[in-house]
Amino acid sequence: MILSEVLIDEKEIRKRVEELGKGISADYAGKDLVVIGILKGAVVFLSDLVRCIDRDVGVTLDFMAVSSYGDSTNTSGIVRIIKDLDCSIRGKHVLIVEDIVDTGLTLSYLVKMMLEREPESVRVCALLDKVERRKVEVAVQYTGFVIPDYFVVGYGLDYSGRWRNLPSVHVVVPERGDEA
Length: 180
Ligand code: PRP
Prior knowledge:
By secondary structure, this protein is of the alpha/beta class. Helix content is 21%, strand content 37%. It has three helices and nine strands; from the N terminus they run βαβαβββαββββ. α3 (105-116) links the parallel β5 and β6. It is globular and about 55 Å long. The site of 1-O-pyrophosphono-5-O-phosphono-alpha-D-ribofuranose has 17 residues, from β2, β5 and α3.
């Protein structure tokens, strides 16, 4: 695969992340909020997002690493926990932060799993949403950008582990000779 055009540039991302942070700040003012990053893709987005949530919200961070059974482009919906949360979320307000929602299978599993732990509330914030790829309905309360079904990298998103460090979101396309 090769890196192609910029789909969302740094400036657009910054502006949208600030808006999301403002919305979250308003919704959770005076409350405590456990922000849960889903590794690894969400790390870059999360680190910018939490700095746009103001001090009226008592933010703590936790992380979960999951792996979905299936190949790289077809998630099965069965999720294996590689790293669980460090702390209990019982009675807490929880915000799950994802880089991208595609079929929705991973997120739907994660939300169900969190709810079993009896938090006060669970909401989701995703930078990117490929709405047209959805296989299961899942509520995303804070969405950065709805995007078409392109393979995208950058700003935390990878192809085979690469390109997470790029500051913008790019499209990647097959190189001549790549399998279709
Ligand atoms: C991505 C993304 C979601 C999932 C979305 O993770 O972060 O967790 O895929 O796909 P779905 O809606 O079809 O379930 P990925 O497995 O690429 O791991 P990564 O974050 O470590 O790159």
